[in-house]
Please model this.
Amino acid sequence: MADKLDIKIDYKKLKVLSEFNTDKAEFPLVLAIPHSGTFFPAEFLENVACDVATLRRNEDIFVDELVRGAVEAKITTLKMEIARAFVDLNRDRLELDPMMYFNYPKDKDILYDKHCRVGLGVVHRINFKRENLYKGLLDYHEVEARLKNVYDVYHKRLQKLIDKSLKKFGFCLVLDCHSMPSKICSIIDDRSGIDICLGNLFSQSCPPEISDFLAGQFWDKNYNVSFNCPYSGAFTTFNYCQPRRKMYTLQLEINRSLYADEENLQKNEQFEAVAEDVSEAIINLAIHLKRMYE
Model:
């Protein structure tokens, strides 16, 4: 019989997120960075069956630094500080796997979709090696506290920033910033691999003018850009997409091999050049969106 894990975390001591340029919205654009956090609560680490290096292999390494130039250009930005392996913000709150808990409520609603089936729901069951993440079964009530104090904090703040942009500009684009493993890019496109993927829910999450403009920024710098392949958009792209309210979303995925050594989690020699290109593309997008408003 699997052990019952007793994880108790003092959330008052944790820095959950960082935000930039949120006092005054300069552009109708919000950058969301949900998967670049590197902090793991000590109580969590005591109950997982792998080391920190393994846990970090599914994070979006250095994405927050890739967009630093855009942040310095006064674009509103929200970044999660806690690591993805602890809570995955780009999943629905209901994407829980009942088999991970020793006391999952029998009457509790579940959304047992493809992410849960492969072990990557809102709370991950496996690491990147597809090994079990935890040493035993979780306490459902502890995970509910985890969602309340991390997941909900992030998403409530993101919604407030969107509302602020809607009030000022009449519309808002959430650019959900991620990185993607080079392996999947090469499998999808065996010619030269995909450098940039823009996920717009197959042209449903934002006007084509917006996604085409951003694609053009990368095409002009000779990046191989793909739409909706290998990623069309996940929870954030879907959940905050309300075209009738002029709430738009777009998921940005950057091939990790362009700027980093994926295995050693280190920047490569091209990092600064890629960061400059990514930030410049986002800044130009922000200016373009503001002109649409004016």
